[in-house]
Amino acid sequence: LIKPGRTILASTIAKVYTQEIKDNIAKLKQTSHPNGPLLVGFLANQDPAAEMYARWTGKTAESLGVRFELRQFDDKDQLEENILTANEDTGVDGIMIYFPVFGNAQDQYLQQIVSIEKDVEGLNHLYYQNMYHNIRYLDDENKLKSILPCTPLAVVKILEYLKLYNSLLPEGNHLYGKKCVVVNRSEIVGRPLAALLANDGATVYSVDINNIQKFTRGSGLKFAKHHVEDLGDFSESLLKKLSLDADIIITGVPSETYKFPTEYVKEGAACINFSSHKNFNDDVKEKASLYVPMTGKVTIAMLIRNMLRLIENRNAK
Ligand code: NAD
């Protein structure tokens, strides 16, 4: 049976960025970083998905010429002090933490103590604030680019690869006319992702367990940044109605058993899953035009790209 659409793997999409990253690292090796830059990952949970992601990060980083060091702790309370030490260490270029650590608000505190100049995941409040306000640079001369949170950024790069961004449209409006559903509204991925897509001109329906919200720049894209409107409590019927009208469906539900109903997918829609569990059933391939079952490898490419940008910004200062 010939399927009408295509499944595209994250590894294929990540390759687009591999050469650019390698070239930049080769340049760094001839100047400020003879041994290549150093990325440090902090792991203090027993989550096998986090550990696997850490191993992939290491493998990918090293294949690109980046040194990767995983610092693992059984005692979560040791993280803070060790992160502060890495902040001060001029030999460390990038820092990331594998979340959840405590699984509560203390994780946000840990996130914010990572030096803003080493925050490869782009989770610092200033980066978020810039993103939510559609501010793309850190300085008045527009020389230092702001950093974007790497998983939402990876999804944007995937949508570009899938040609859902239309570069014929004016800069900043490349998603004008597209309707997207994002099932996840975490502070790490879902909410920033909905904002990014809406800032680029899309109409985004952001879905979580409790309710459904609409993110847009208003009619005629009249606002410079997205606005949010509550559409009411979560309901299957509303999700179904919005999804059947959506060009793009993105899932990130952290559950093994959750499956986005294939009958809610419009024929020819693009489906992307960033959860570590497959949120779509295999029969989605018979409905979707483009299907990206996982995104982790693109996220890792974005981590390393963010690190190079941080080094560039530091060197420019
Ligand atoms: P989280 O637990 O913080 O957030 C989950 C979100 O999904 C919440 O908004 C919740 O309301 C929503 N949700 C849960 N069940 C739902 C349902 N049945 N219907 C509608 N909404 C529902 O998780 P997170 O940190 O955002 O991570 C989510 C997943 O993404 C995890 O599997 C994680 O491993 C993965 N992740 C992947 C990458 C990557 O690069 N691919 C990066 C970060 C996280």
Walkthrough of the structure:
- This protein has 9 helices and 11 strands.
- The mean pLDDT is 95.
- 36% of the residues lie in helices and 17% in strands.
- An 8-stranded mixed sheet has the order 1-11-10-9-5-6-7-8, sandwiched between helices.
- It is of the alpha/beta class and 317 residues long.
- Helix 2 packs across helix 9, helix 6 crosses helix 7 and helix 6 crosses helix 9.
- The chain folds into 2 domains: 91 residues, Leucine Dehydrogenase, chain A, domain 1 (Rossmann fold, 3-Layer(aba) Sandwich), CATH 3.40.50.10860; 147 residues, NAD(P)-binding Rossmann-like Domain (Rossmann fold, 3-Layer(aba) Sandwich).
- It is globular, with a radius of gyration of 20 Å.
- Bound molecules: nicotinamide-adenine-dinucleotide (NAD).
- Nicotinamide-adenine-dinucleotide (NAD) binds next to helix 6 and helix 9.
Short description:
The protein contains nine helices and eleven strands. With 317 residues, it is an alpha/beta fold. The strands form two sheets. The chain has an eight-stranded mixed sheet with strand order 1-11-10-9-5-6-7-8, sandwiched between helices.
